[in-house]
Amino acid sequence: MTRPVAGIICCTRTVGIEPAQAVMSRYVEATMAHADVAALLVPSLPGRMRAAEVVGRLDGLMLTGSPSNLDPALYGEEIGDAPGPFDTARDGMTADLIKAMLDLGKPVFGICRGFQEINVAFGGTLRRDMAANPDLIAHHAPDDVDFNGMFDHTHEVALTPGGVLARAFGAEAAVVNSVHYQGVDRLGEGLAVEARAPDGVVEAFSATVNGAPVLAVQWHPEWKPAQNRQSQIFFEIFGRALRGAPLVVDTPGASR
Ligand SMILES: N[C@@H](CCC(=O)NCCCC(=O)O)C(=O)O
């Protein structure tokens, strides 16, 4: 039987001295393995391709994490010294893809940068002080840790009772990795909070648009999902969304 096809966004990166369309394999492999789908990588080349030309071939869209930050102008803040790196090609492509997918009633899921992109697409704003603000918990590991150590940095989130994640995980809280310097400031219109950090910052949200589920998390379920049942469940939800199935099969204690 042919499986659904997930579109997975590429970033503009540099390989050697050349610009490249790239996505870390962990995002692609976790999506394919745990959502049980085929995948197509979508280039962030909005000057060469319109989202409307490809969304008809996709059953759902996965927006990945990335070290790059959204251009604050996208959420109405013109700041000369905003922290980069930027990837304005990805900014443009994802904004068009989110709209085109949801216009067709097709699922859109996001991880970390993808979560931030969806919030902005729904009219929300971002804050850029998630690692430095003493009033917040540390949302990023200290600068001197190595790459693996970055993903070892965790904190708890409270899951919204009755929400998609609380039901799917069969839990009231979860411990999540935290690899971001920016986060949700104003939540986009129509997005329902799925999880909050202990400092109140929104860590996951959901929505339904034209019948299509939207679900996004600030953390990284693609990081070693074999070791984390809740990470697997995030992608299983995506797989169900692409099949038009109910997002949650209510099984008490699902993640335990
Ligand atoms: N740059 C944004 C988004 C954070 C993010 O997606 N981090 C992932 C980095 C690791 C990877 O490449 O997967 C922010 O800092 O908030």
From TrEMBL:
CDD domains: GATase1_2 (cd01745). GO terms for cellular component: cytosol. Its EC number is 3.5.1.94. It catalyses: 4-(gamma-L-glutamylamino)butanoate + H2O = 4-aminobutanoate + L-glutamate. Keywords: Hydrolase. One of its GO terms (molecular function) is gamma-glutamyl-gamma-aminobutyrate hydrolase activity. It is an enzyme of class 3 (hydrolase). Pathway: Amine and polyamine degradation; putrescine degradation; 4-aminobutanoate from putrescine: step 4/4. PROSITE patterns: GATASE_TYPE_1. GO terms for biological process: polyamine catabolic process. It holds the Pfam family Peptidase_C26. Involved in the breakdown of putrescine via hydrolysis of the gamma-glutamyl linkage of gamma-glutamyl-gamma-aminobutyrate. Belongs to the peptidase C26 family. This is gamma-glutamyl-gamma-aminobutyrate hydrolase. It comes from Caulobacter segnis (strain ATCC 21756 / DSM 7131 / JCM 7823 / NBRC 15250 / LMG 17158 / TK0059) (Mycoplana segnis).
